[in-house]
Design a protein that fits this description.
about 35% helix; three-stranded antiparallel β-sheet; alpha+beta
């Protein structure tokens, strides 16, 4: 049995939220993807270069700044753990 009823008209709040969504989508569409990776700090470990996509992070219940990435042992642990804020540059 088919339901031929039209969906209810959106409320004023729903219209407002749809407008916000449209504005945000337009802003996202305007940003070229290349700008996402430009200007990010980089670190090198065992011949590979990684972009750092955050300024602070928590690892093993301890908070760090990106300055801590100068510690090779910590950097190796982060890479091994495949943290999301280190992105390999190819």
């Amino acid at each position: 049995m088919e339901n031929n009823q039209n969906p209810p008209a959106p409320t004023e709040r729903e219209k407002e939220l749809l407008g916000v969504i449209d504005e945000l989508q337009k802003k996202l569409d305007e940003k070229p993807e290349a700008s996402i990776s430009s200007g990010l700090p980089k670190v090198t470990h065992k011949g590979k270069t990684y972009e750092v996509t955050c300024k602070k992070f928590i690892f093993e219940r301890k908070e760090y700044t990106i300055e801590a990435l100068k510690d090779a042992k910590l950097l190796a642990k982060l890479i091994e753990a495949q943290v999301g804020f280190l992105r390999e540059v190819k």
